[in-house]
Amino acid sequence: MHRRELLLNLLGLGCAGALAPLASRGAVPSSSPPFPNLPLPLPLPNDGLSGEEQRQSLARFSIADRLLLPPGFTADLIAVWGDPLANGRFGFNNDYLAFFPQGTNRALMAINFEYISLRPWREGLAETLPTPPPVEALIRALAERDGRVEATSLSADDPLKAMVRSVATAAMEDLGIGVASLRRHDDGRWVREPGPKDRRLSGLSGIDDPDQRLRCSGPAAAVFRRSQRLGFDDGLGDRIIGTFANCAGGTTPWGTLLSAEENIQDQVVEAVHADGSSPHPSALPFRCDKERLSGLGNPFALAGNKYGWMVEVHPSRPERPAVKHTWLGRFRHEAVAVHAVAGEPLRIYSACDRHGGHLYRFVSDGVVTDPSNPSNAKLLEAGRLEVARLDPVGPAGQGRGQWLLLAPSTPVNPPAPSRMEAFGLRQPTRVPHSDRRRAGAEALRDDAAVAAYRDRFRTLADLYPGSGEEQQGAILIDAHLAANAIGATAGARPEDTELDPLSGALLIAFTAAGTDGEGTADPAIFRGPAGETNWPFGWLMRLEEDADGFRWHLVATGGTPWQGGLGFANPDNLAFDGRGNLWMLTDRSSSDARTDVFGNNSCWLFPASGPWRGQALPFATGPMESELTGLCLEPPAAGGQEATLFLSVQHPGEVNGTGQKDAREVQAHQLVDRNGVAFDQLRTVPLGSNWPSGVPGRPPRPGVVAIRRLEGGPLLRA
Question: Which of 163, 211, 518, 579 has the most CB atoms less than 10 A away?
Fold first, then answer.
């Protein structure tokens, strides 16, 4: 299928036999695009250049350490790491953003703070914190221990214990969730204006004040309250210290934030026992060396099973405790999409961002009456969690699927390793360990092992003993491995989930197919344009539910245009505007040389109507070694259009830290123009970053910006 037809299907605009073919691969509309062209370091089908012009203009290219926008746009800096916020500070690596109007020209913005990029964090501490923690001294002290220490075993008078706690506390206070008050000036600029509803939840909220501890709802609370358990007891019952690894999220129609705890495995023990309890925190020691800061939960003896949840926060009610809703499952949550329609059960979609991760759906027992009623939060306390199984049907890249119930009665039916071997891949099937006294996973390496496992454990009840809420809670706590055990489809790092406001279809971003030893994307589902397995550039999938399950279709493929892709790599965050246009951010890893050709991470628009519908248009590129996250559009007035786009600039300088004057490298790339003619490019790439100051030698700092037109008015022009 032609790439433009795929994009029309992406936006729900295509139907068989209704699409007129384009004159050529590179044909573009004669009318002006919604915004001026933003040059990228590789040829695009819609860049308006001839093949010769592409070769001439791209033979040499310089990447900039700036947030680049089309002419006529500007980015106002809202906040950066270290700015005061409530009783704490604006944290590190800001990610998801959510906008909550509070009357005319007033708003609250919720911000996730995901993780620590050690090098820029170390280099920026002296400038950012009044009293920086002793990171460098701790690195030296731990050098003879390979950078690691089991901090819970250190005596109270050991000087090392105090150093570890100081560094870990500073890092944990840079994680979590913030709520900041905003005000709009007459010229359209949004600015910070501290207010009484400002709030800061950190990785250690409640460690000293029990009233600040987080609450939880759903069956896992019964596991947390157990007096007898196979693993560790933190002594807190169903109360929880802090939240961290907060990646993306979503909002509810009743005015709350849902914040997704994702890569908790870096800070606490992820594996659990059969009863849902965690191994002792000593299983993941604290680590601090020049390369990595991890195991932050170890010095505080945090129980790993209390992290990896979806957290609900009421921005307008700072006195209300944050709640982890355990019916939504514990896994590496990336984002969330909320379907709340009067007279129907509440449905919530979320994905697990890992190689082999799954797509999940929560369905409430009760029904929504008024979607805006805050009492809808109660619907999250009773329901069912399901996980998707996809089957290829018909042409490549599409098929049908069904939802599998994560419940004690569900049959155990893990996929056979031969399914991968048929495509030339070797990937064991990871399931809950057959020795149910042991926490974590077991790798089944052949079909015979899978058959024996299935014979021994007939249903999830055989894997998770007990009854009632405690049994269901253990399944939810171990959701990823339980989903593996019942045959859920292994995804290609599923990330954001968004509901199309025009059609109601679910859109899912799959960032990349690959393997990390724990999982591999199902090659029967996720194939490159020429049938490649482990395609590293990602996809967008459209999923439409019906009475028999759902239909799915891979509707956009990442990759270079000459490989059959659309010019972007690794789709991540998604957002629809009020007219059904799709906005997308990319998450290209700097550790994968195959994606270097795409340059810095970027923001894209897929118009849903007008002459440019079916085109992929680049709107922004980020500073060096950064990721653009938190895609958030200011809701327009009735009948109007969005005028402000908020973005997080996350981890600038993550690899090389602070940019120095003239520190750069020259890369050689082979590109292909629109006529299929290959040509060479010499590309100058700065090393490290100085964003947002732009001053060589000054450390970079993550921050949030508000993008608008200089002359005012809507972001997009017809």
Answer: 163
CB atoms within 10 A of CB 512: 27
Q: Report the C-alpha gap between 198 and 78 in whole angstroms.
A: 14
pLDDT at residue 505, as a whole number: 98
**Alpha-carbon distance 270 to 278, whole Å?**
8
Residues 6+ apart with CB under 8 A from 71: 36
Q: Which pLDDT belongs to residue 19?
A: 23
CA distance 574 to 542: 13
The whole-number pLDDT of residue 11 equals 59
Rounded Cα–Cα distance for residues 318 and 207 (Å): 18
Q: What is the DSSP letter of 594?
A: G
Confidence at residue 366, expressed as pLDDT on a 0 to 100 scale: 98
Q: What is the Cα–Cα distance from 389 to 366, expressed in whole angstroms?
A: 25
Residue 44 contacts residue 588 (beta carbons within 8 Å):
no
Report which DSSP code applies to 212: G
Q: Which pair of tokens denotes residue 490?
A: 């292994």
Cβ atoms of 339 and 352 within 8 Å: the answer is no
> Could you report the per-residue pLDDT of 583-617, keeping only the tens digit for each?
999 999 877 788 999 999 999 999 999 999 989 99
Angstrom distance (rounded) from CA 265 to CA 267: 6
C-alpha–C-alpha distance, residues 684 and 663, integer Å: 10
Task: Give the Cα separation of 476 and 455 in Å (integer).
Answer: 23
Q: How confident is the model at residue 9 (pLDDT cuts 50, 70, 90)?
A: low
Contact in structure between 709 and 634 (CB atoms under 8 Å): no
Can you tell me the distance from the alpha carbon of 581 to that of 571, in angstroms, rounded to the nearest whole number? Answer: 16
Lowest average pLDDT, out of 10-19, 57-66, 105-114, goes to 10-19
- Average of per-residue pLDDT values in the chain: 95
